[in-house]
Amino acid sequence: MTDIRIIGSPLPNIPWQDKPSDCTAPVWRFSCNPIINRNPLPNVARIFNSAVMPYNDGFIGVFRGEQRDGMPHIYLGHSKNAIDWTFEPEKIPFTNAEGKPFMPIYAYDPRLVKVDDTYYIMWCQDEYGASIGMAKTTDFRTFTRLENPFLPYNRNAVLFPRKIGGNFIMLSRPCDNAHTAFGDIFISESKDMEFWGRHRHVMSPSKNWWDSLKIGAGAAPIETDKGWLLFYHGVVNTCNGYVYSIGAAILDIDQPSRVIHRCSNYILAPEEWYEERGFVPNVCFPCAALCDAESGRIAIYYGCADSYVGIAFATVSELYEYILAHDEVSVTDEEIGLR
User: Fold this and answer.
1) Cα(201)–Cα(240) distance, integer angstroms
2) Which CATH number does the domain housing residue 87 bear?
3) Is residue 256 domain-resident?
4) Residue 269 to residues 27, 35, 244, 261, 285: CA-CA distances in angstroms?
5) How do 143-145 and 94-95 pair as beta strands?
6) Half-sphere exposure of 272 toward its Cβ, with a 13 Å CA cutoff?
7) pTM for the model
8) How many CA atoms lie within 13 A of 160 on its CB side?
């Protein structure tokens, strides 16, 4: 296997299942998928496109809960093993800086990232159009809203898990107010999580069929000694609608707007019933990845058909080797992204 090392903490209780002997792909599904089924709460019809991370001696997560009136909001979940989840029955109670209730009209596709000693939640919301909402917490009891980082229209915001050059770094995907039929990944910087700038282009859709329409950042990038490992979703428009698959790329460790390696093949595409059949069929949508720095194990959490949550597994060495074997980086990927 190619030598690559995750830079981070050990996670000995990472959920894991060994690779099946007949699997030829670098990523394999948990045999007990989906781990979250429909109607998980009395007022929630479906949970999907959600993010989890280690917390204390277990795991915590922020979950997209599609309510029975069709409006999405974010719910908090707890787990000992990151597989069996207990959800708090009420929506996360967001407040403003003065501690007064300040709930978004709607909120969906959350990500959860720890930077230093603070946990940050990012989601898509309405700010007179699709935009990025953010909040912070240190105890998962109080959730303080932050200034919206960008004007509409934007989706798929993901923070890096540490500062680079003293600044917070965030990926996003500018879009329009509809079901966007385009989309590149960009990167932005902030010293204070209030004012964002130094915007740079990262990646465009490729000439490969599976991610030729639009792309968007998925899980928080994983730091390795070869660069930042990024899982992202790629979309193609077929005669029967959009298909969402999962791809992987390596970004420069100090200038993450530069793509060093990009896998021309998807690493996971809708094949199982829970990915192909659901409220929105044919969707694999990554939002989180747990990793164990000691073993190199990775557990990818992804939304399935806008109806379920699944887990897929990989090792960083096998995945990196697969990326290198199918490496295809464009000129605009390799650029610093400034024009």
Assistant:
1) 31
2) 2.115.10.20
3) yes
4) 10, 18, 7, 20, 9
5) parallel
6) 18
7) 0.97
8) 28
Amino acid residing at 298: I
Query: Is residue 17 included in any domain, yes or no?
Result: no
Residue 18 belongs to some domain of the structure: no
Q: Which two three-digit tokens encode residue 164?
A: 């680079």
Convert the pLDDT of each residue in 208-255 to its tens digit.
999 999 999 999 999 999 999 999 999 999 999 999 999 999 999 999
Instruction: Please tell me whether residue 210 adopts helix, strand or coil conformation.
Output: helix
Q: Terminus-to-terminus CA distance in the chain, angstroms?
A: 38
Q: What angle do CA 143, 41, 47 make, to 5 degrees?
A: 70
Q: Is residue 174 part of a domain?
A: yes
Torsion of CA 287, 72, 308, 180, to 10 degrees: -60
- With beta carbons less than 8 A apart as the criterion, state whether 261 and 250 touch: yes
Quote the number of domains for the chain.
1
